[in-house]
Amino acid sequence: MAKKAKSRTIAVRLISMALTGYYKTFSRPRQHRPLSMLKYDPVVKKKVLFLEQKRGGTK
Amino acid sequence: MATPQHITLAQSLPPRLLHFFKRFPPPQLSAATSSAAAPPSETITIAENTSSSDPNAGASTYEVPLPTSTATSNNADVGWKKNPFLAFKNPSTGNWHPPHYSLRRQADLFKLAQTHNVLPLMPPSPKHPELKAQKRIEHGLRVKGTGEGQRVKGKYWERTLKTRLETRRKAMESMPDMINLWRERGHGRGWKKYPSGKEGKGTAELFDPGMRHAWVHERAPTSTA
C-alpha cells in the first residue's frame, strides 16, 4: 500500500531567543527555508528574535 | 538531713506539688541527704518533715516509707520511681506500663513548678519547658523545612527560578548583537543554526559575539572579489 503523501505545508514553532519559553506557531511550505522573525515577547516585554525550532528526527 | 531551706521550701509549695515530691522524692534532695548521712531512714525524715509542714497532707503517712520501699519493691515500682512521667517497661514480664502521671497532669505539675521556681527538682518529661522550647526550635513553624538546619524544598518553579532568570538575562544581553547579525545575514537567509527547543540550552551554541567577526571575515573576500 502506498504511503500517504506528505502535506505541502508544515506547522513550525518559532522559539523566542530571550529563552523565556514563549513561542509562536506558523505554517510554511515544507521546502521553504526555516523561518525567523522579530516578534514581541510578552515575558521580557520587548521585540526579540524568534527562530524556528529544529524538527524531530522521525520526520 | 532536712535542711531549713528544704523545710521552708516545702511550706511554700502548693499541696499538689508537695504530694508529688512526697511520692517521688527528687534525686537531688535524696542524694544530698544520703551523702550526708547515708541511711534511707534520713529520706524518711525529710518526707515526715514535709508532711508535717503541709496542712493538707493528712493521708501522707503511707507515702513516707516509699523511698525505703524502692529498694525492696518490685520492678514496676522502681521504674516509676526512676521517672513517673515516662512509660515503663517491666523487664521481667515485658509489659509496658503507662506513665504514673498523664500528660495533662504532668503539664499541670510543670506549670505549678515553674511558678514556684522548683523546675530543677522535676524529673525529665515531655512537658518540661526546656524540652518544649527545644522541640519548638527543632520543628520551626511545624511546616516541613522551617526547623533549625532545614531548608524549605519549594515548588519546582521556585527552585529553578534563579537559574532561569539568569539564562534569560544572559540571552537578553546578547540580543542586540544577535539581531544585528540576523539582519546582516539577510533576515535569516544566511542563518544556519536553529534551536533544538530543549530546555537548559542557552543561546551560546546558536550565537556568540565572536562568531559574528568570523562571518564578516568570511564575507569580506567574496564581496571584494
TrEMBL record, chain A:
Q: Which Pfam families match?
A: Ribosomal_L33
Q: Which Gene3D superfamilies has this protein been placed in? A: Ribosomal protein L33
State a single Gene Ontology molecular function.
structural constituent of ribosome
**Gene Ontology, cellular component aspect:** mitochondrion; ribonucleoprotein complex; ribosome
Subcellular localization is given as: Mitochondrion
Output the InterPro entries linked to this UniProt entry.
Answer: Mitoribosomal_protein_bL33, Ribosomal_bL33, Ribosomal_bL33_sf, Ribosomal_zn-bd
Q: Which domain of life is it from?
A: Eukaryota
Keywords, sorted A to Z: Mitochondrion, Ribonucleoprotein, Ribosomal protein
Question: What family is it from?
Answer: Belongs to the bacterial ribosomal protein bL33 family.
Protein's name in the database: Large ribosomal subunit protein bL33m
State the taxonomy lineage: Eukaryota, Fungi, Dikarya, Ascomycota, Pezizomycotina
TrEMBL record, chain B:
List compositional bias (Polar residues) regions by residue number.
46-59
**Residue ranges of domain Large ribosomal subunit protein mL59 in the record:** 15-184
This entry's Gene Ontology molecular function terms read:
structural constituent of ribosome
Pfam families to which the protein is assigned, alphabetical:
Mitoc_mL59 (PF18126)
Ranges for region Disordered: 46-75
Tell me the PANTHER family matching this sequence.
54S RIBOSOMAL PROTEIN L25, MITOCHONDRIAL, LARGE RIBOSOMAL SUBUNIT PROTEIN ML59
Q: What is this protein's record name? A: Large ribosomal subunit protein mL59 domain-containing protein
> What are its GO cellular component terms?
mitochondrial large ribosomal subunit
